[in-house]
Amino acid sequence: QALWMLDPKDIGEWQHEEFYRFIAQAYDKPRYILHYKTDAPLNIRSIFYVPEQKPSMFDISRELGSSVALYSRKILIQTKAADILPKWLRFLRGVVDSEDIPLNLSRELLQESALIRKLRDVLQKRLIKFFIDQSKKDPEKYAKFFEDYGVFMREGIVTIAEQDVKEDIAKLLRYESSSLPAGQLTSLTDYASRMKAGSRNIYYLCAPNRHLAEHSPYFEAMKKKDMEVLFCYEQFDELTLLHLREFDKKKLISVETDIVVDHYKEEKFEDSSPATERLTEKEAEDLMAWMRNALGSRVTGIKVTTRLDTHPAMITVLEMGAARHFLRMQQLAKTQEERAQLLQPTLEINTRHALIKKLNELKDSQPDLAQLLLDQIYENAMIAAGLNEDPRPMVNKLNELLTRILEKN
């Protein structure tokens, strides 16, 4: 029986389940069902199912297009019509029937035809709207769906060229936020609605989890601005947001990039701490000169920052997200020096921090120990920046530093 031709009201849940299992050759139930009928701009009778089962790595990496069957007036044209849905929606199972499609449509024409392109665009728009509606209807169920299927949405944003389509798909993304309790997700649309008047940027920070995000030097540096920051935990979030670039005429900016941009604008942040708590300007200048010499080609520049409180230092790189992705993909830079050549990092130091003040004393009294301490501060900053994929080579130096400190006591 051609369920898709019936009125949605006349179809029971058990019929959908049976039909889904038949067309998907599956044993689970559908978690979402969209029964979509329209006569304009095209005649469409369709049913789409999202499987209950989480997609496997095989499903995600599958190069094939959709698993949706294409019919015209109940006559099967193609069992797996790869071109009637964009590739990122290949997790859907279902049927599309359109009277507008000629029965003699060849496989070549299926790929080329303007009619199929039109059909694909209409279905993509309707499916995005369906998922947005579901997220409002039952946010908890949608959050689970996004956790399981979010990788496909990220792929859509990265692979589709048209900015308006990217932004449409981006409405489906969900992230935690610095303004909301842990576990609560928000959309880019919601973030935009909470923005202060005159704000033009959506800020985000990529980290493996909330604890690391909240204790990141970059998040600490943003606190002075009192801005909401989205926390992105998935490996591909960074790449996705780099490709998206903007949303609803607002620029997507990683907090690390924002810090660098502020330097170029020479934005000043007040240091409200008493002068006695930090190094004097002369001490800071001397220390930075010594550090430049001691770190050599591992840094491009060293400067003082007033945006840190609990961290001694942080690394800033123009376009940090792109740099991280590049290092991950290329595996080019094996040594610290090679990495620094690519990244051109700046080390920003907090002259109120006990470690930096101690480093200033040690550089004259115990230069060897000062060098070990500086190496560790630099490495820690590189790890916090996500620019050191393998911290294991550090262990020997860290042991040496600990031994030296214990010998002193």
From TrEMBL:
Database matches in Gene3D superfamilies: 3.30.230.80, 3.40.50.11260, Heat shock protein 90, C-terminal domain (1.20.120.790)
Main location as per UniProt: mitochondrion
Subcellular location: Mitochondrion
Cited SUPFAM superfamilies: HSP90 C-terminal domain, Ribosomal protein S5 domain 2-like
Pfam families: HSP90
GO terms, molecular function: ATP binding; ATP hydrolysis activity; ATP-dependent protein folding chaperone; unfolded protein binding
Domain of life, source organism: Eukaryota
Gene Ontology annotations for the cellular component aspect, listed alphabetically: intracellular organelle lumen; mitochondrion
Keyword terms: ATP-binding, Chaperone, Mitochondrion, Nucleotide-binding, Transit peptide
Family per record: Belongs to the heat shock protein 90 family.
Name under which the protein is recorded: TRAP1 protein
Source species: Probosciger aterrimus (Palm cockatoo)
Species classification: Eukaryota, Metazoa, Chordata, Craniata, Vertebrata
